[in-house]
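Continuing from the previous page...

OK, I double-checked the sequence for Serine dehydrogenase proteinase against my notes and this is the correct one:
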Amino acid sequence: MPSLDNHILLALSHYRGLIAEHFGCSLLAYSGPIHPAVQSAYVNAIEELVRHRDNTANPNRICIVIATPGGVVEAVEKMVEVTRHYFNEVFFVVPTAAMSAGTIFCMSGDKIFMDYTSSLGPIDPQVPLADGQLVPALGYIDKVNQLIEKSAAGCLTDAEFMMLQRQDLATLRRYEQARDLSVSLLKLWLVKYKFKDWTVHGCTNPGTAVSEAQKEARAEQIAKDLSDNNRWHSHGRMIGINTLTGGLKLKIEDYTDDQELRQNLRVYSELITEHAERQRSAFMLHYT
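Thanks. Re-ran it with the corrected sequence; updated structure tokens here:
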């Protein structure tokens, strides 16, 4: 029904305008898996926003409203390069969830905005199989390591031995590389962007200056915690704002008490999901 689609698009533009006005900058919404196939559309979206950014209060800032189950970390790396080529300040807003590669993407921002219902996820990278299906890498790595430990202890069953024999070493290495890249990018972006304005300690030794080594140590710990498959037990584990701020000591901007912003973001994200489903699209970018 074209008329209904037109109404949805008008509503999307309306709510996008309200949210962009709140943050005083260009606004881009991304919904769906993160995959190399979306890069061309993402570049087009960023370049279109750049053409009109002088009409905003903060031309060098962009706000990205993101909802994603995750995806390919190499695609995230390129998206960050494209975004940072034009914008010095990047805000991420997570109305629902940004999992796995989406979490890594958020860590490239200067600020992350969430409410009490929002979630990030463990940084368990997804890698494409031959049929294009994305699978989490850490589960494979952990299972192979478990079988190797059982073999060393002399308690590997015949069935497990056959499972281990069937593993493709090149594929396993690819999984390990995806894991290592995820951790290294997370550490790099936290120090370079998220911790950029962290100059004074707020909890430990309040008021003392924060050194570069301390920023790197904090980033290392956060990367270690988020990539610990044994801690989270599930690729799809949703990590809420209290765990992120309390357990991982990651600064999150909490908009729970801003009822107007919460309502606008909720309606906007629901409309994007509905429109993507109606279009039968795997992902959606909204920026006009």
